[in-house]
Write a structure and sequence with these properties.
- The structure is a single chain.
- The chain has one domain.
- Helix 1 runs antiparallel to helix 2.
- The chain is an all-alpha fold.
Amino acid sequence: MKAFLSKAERVSEWVVGLGVFAMVISMALQILFRYFLLYPLAWTDTMARFTFVWSVFFAAFIGARKNMHVAIDMLPKRFPPFLRLASTLLINGLIIMILIVCAYYGFKLTYISQTSLLPAIPVPLGYIYLPFAISSMLTIASIVDISRDAIVSAASEKEK
């Protein structure tokens, strides 16, 4: 699973990088065409929003993969090892349950909105919801991997 998640993380980094690049280019084009050439482009705003959504959700997966999200851990750090592991697994289980709901509705919204097109670019509206579902699934796999590592780490501490 670690190999798959590493590859998914590298692909996500490319998606985020290209998304941010495309967003900046489309916004710069909008400024150039609207204010200097006095001929606004219709597609640049939609493209910037589209790439922003994709970048945010894949960046959220990268943050979860690297365990970089905000956490209040002052109390759990004072717990004995078994209770610390139990609280970590409980929190990760709750996160996984929320992500399952997010993935389900992300795929559902993607499917339902495939017949509607974005107003300025001929792309189905469902593709705006797709990264929500994909990043939720990837984050579930990442949280499972982090939980497995926590169990292995706790077991190795116990052996010492």
